[in-house]
Amino acid sequence: MNTVPINRSPERPGVAGSPAYRRVLLKLSGEALMGDDAYGINRQTIDRMVTEIAGVVALGIELAVVIGGGNIFRGVAPGASGMDRATADYMGMLATVMNSLALQDALRQVGVVARVQSALKIEQVVEPYIRPKALRYLEEGKVVIFAAGTGNPFFTTDTAAALRGAEMGAEIVLKATKVDGVYTADPARDPAAVRYHRISFDDAIGRNLKVMDATAFALCRDQRLPIKVFSILKEGALARVVRGEDEGTLVHV
Q1: Which of 22, 80, 94, 114 would you label with 74, given CA atoms 20 to 30 Å apart?
Q2: How many helices and strands, by DSSP H and E, does the chain display?
Q3: CA-to-CA distance for 78 and 57, rounded, in angstroms?
Q4: What is the pTM of this model?
């Protein structure tokens, strides 16, 4: 098994459309799966995402995915009001398992082999997280979907993405959102807001830009693991990101 550390340079433009990275960690929010629905999984939305992912896999990129659970937990959130925080977090982790299974099945339908590994042990449904096995899957060209966050309450799936990205030796964390990058202000409220093409971790902290939660952001900074924030809603954006094109915002050391 290849365990040689990967060189994490801020950005390397691909040559003639070739990929700029060998191994990446894609962070998908659960909310992105909802499409225009109030909660749950929108079939057309997940099919479009799977098409984008399949295109990246076809480029020969080793791809790991961490997915959130907000689209499912949002539907039960009113009933969880006043609930113990740890209990609510475990419910959220189970929601990510459901999303991971849905993504795995959608990938299967387009011919992409994926494996789900969960930080919580639910061995009748998915296999547990085992780092050497996950690395082997990546080397075999399989997509690895990490479910249940870190397996601990009080930690977000952003933190899980940073952690798994570091453990897998990913060259970059791709944070897929509904906004096409990091802006000087909220573009939905301020039409004069300007997108950063690239920004350092220190500048993002100094300007109080909400790229990721503080724990995830600090982990990426300390591990010198760059983050690319981009919109998963833009057609072809994921492919442009992995080819090193000017898409989204690059946060680097």
Answers
A1: 114
A2: 8, 9
A3: 38
A4: 0.89
